[in-house]
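debug: dumping io for the single-chain case to check the tokenizer round-trip. Nothing else runs in this session.
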Amino acid sequence: MKIALIGYGKMGHMIEKVALKRGHEIVCIIDVDNQEDFDSEAFRSADVAIEFTSPGTAYQNVKKAFAHDVKVVSGSTGWMSAHEDEMRQLCAYGLHTLFWSSNFSVGVALFNALNVYLAKLMNSQPSYDVRVTETHHIHKLDAPSGTAITLAEGIIAHLDRKSGWEKGVLIAPDGTKSGTDNVAPDIIPIDSVRRDEVPGIHSVIYDSEADSITITHDAHSRIGFALGAVLAAEYTATHTGMLTMHDLFHL
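debug: decoded output
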């Protein structure tokens, strides 16, 4: 399979290593200093482009790839909520193809399924309140993380007493705190911490007067995200439309 990489930071380098190890070819690498290569023959030859950049550039990157009829796997977070309707329209009827996930880790896909199952159980246990927390490295620009939002949305869809989520407390790399966890009873607060080089820790906490129940996914490194992105690209190469981890793992 021919792969184009959009974004060549730490994740881009790791995806390159995983893709090459799995026998794929990297035909084009686009970063901030060679945006003109979107119009290159090398980019147009790609079966799939894997995009890991930033919330401010991801949308335009996907549109540029679509302009050359290149399928996209995107792991950039912080942009999809504002553009999801447009992306679904562009991908309708197989016109374009976008595989998007807030997190490509296989473990996180299983964790999301567990989160939904637990929310269904908690629907009959009103004494428990719930919150979500996430911790990431200091370079992450968006807060809360896309994965934390996905977890909250999974809870909201299956826990009748919750209707939405809000940003809770953010602890910055220097220890500064902002935000609040003083939210309405029907809202799930999402707390965020930015420290060191943490790949990603996500927890869902159900708390009652009697006890608390916590489920946590703790990423040991970025390798799981890179492998998941390449697996998604392999799937995307032979499928069309708006795709997610639910399609890849049949969750």
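debug: round-trip ok. Residues 106-122 form the longest helix (17 residues).
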